[in-house]
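$ fold --in a.seq
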Amino acid sequence: MNKTQIRLAALALIVGIAPIFLPKRPRIARRILIKADRAHIFPLVNDLRNWPRWTAWNKRQEIEYHYDGPPAGAGATQHWRARGHSGVLHMTQSHEAERIAYTLTMGDRWLLEGAISLEEIAPHQTRVLWIARWQGAALPWARYRDLLMMMWIGHDFSAGLESLRNLAETTAPVLEPVG
């Protein structure tokens, strides 16, 4: 075997074995410091009608929304449809000015569990942590798709948190929901 064949064989071996070490339950976590009180930020994350104001995916494409249940907090539901895909975001928990939890279902095959927590670390300074996880692919080679999803979602979370910071730091505390 020549050097090229050896390198190709080594690459094929690495590509074939590496997915075994990728997580079976992928997790994304992003955080940001916002110069505002938790009580000021909380309505932006607790009311799903406000999410189009700061989430990143709204800037990429036009999305249709409609809502069920209460306007905010546990039980609030956002149905969305965009080009080629649709989903349901359902708020499962809401703890005033501290934390929300949700599920995101896309189609009939993908379920993501997420949470956003607010921690006041000093007067008028709040650390916002946005986490999500999902059941990864069962087949090891399909975990490369999960790796791509982790990068894509991580990028969206970072951009969304930056927009949330800009919105929270430049608006009055009482916010009217969109929709």
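$ fold --in b.seq
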Amino acid sequence: MVRINARHVNPFIEAAMEVVTQIAGIEVRRGHLSYKERVEPSFGVSIIIGMCGFLTGQIVYSMEETLAKRLVDRMLEGKSPEEKRIMSFDCLGEVANMITGKATALLSQGRDQALSITTPVIASGTNLNVHLVSKPALVLGLITAYGPIEISIAVEETETLREVESPDYALLQGA
């Protein structure tokens, strides 16, 4: 069974609260913390980002449409409704990138290993069938005036290979 380490969770809470507050101009409070056997988005808008490096897995940000609209409206202030409609998924992907980027920077502090993230995938609507990693997840709830956000963290630690410089390796490199 995969065990999720609690120290991998706090950077996501910190990053999400800071980014959403900054972008949407609203208060964000901590909500529930729960465990799920597999990642299942709870709300109509979900942003999925993969992670690899010393941690591998997926992060899923799930929110109600009201909050997603607030984020897009604030990021695209001054744009027409049509421009907002066209650019909405890009904006939501950027919000997830900002949160995940900040969290991975916090997770990587003091380590000589890096984390990489994938391009976000956005799913919106009802009755969607999205296949996510079949790993257990810690689910963090955040509460805003525009609706909740759930962050499902389904990652596990992995061993990374380190390049070892040997005389044979140097010869192959033409040294």
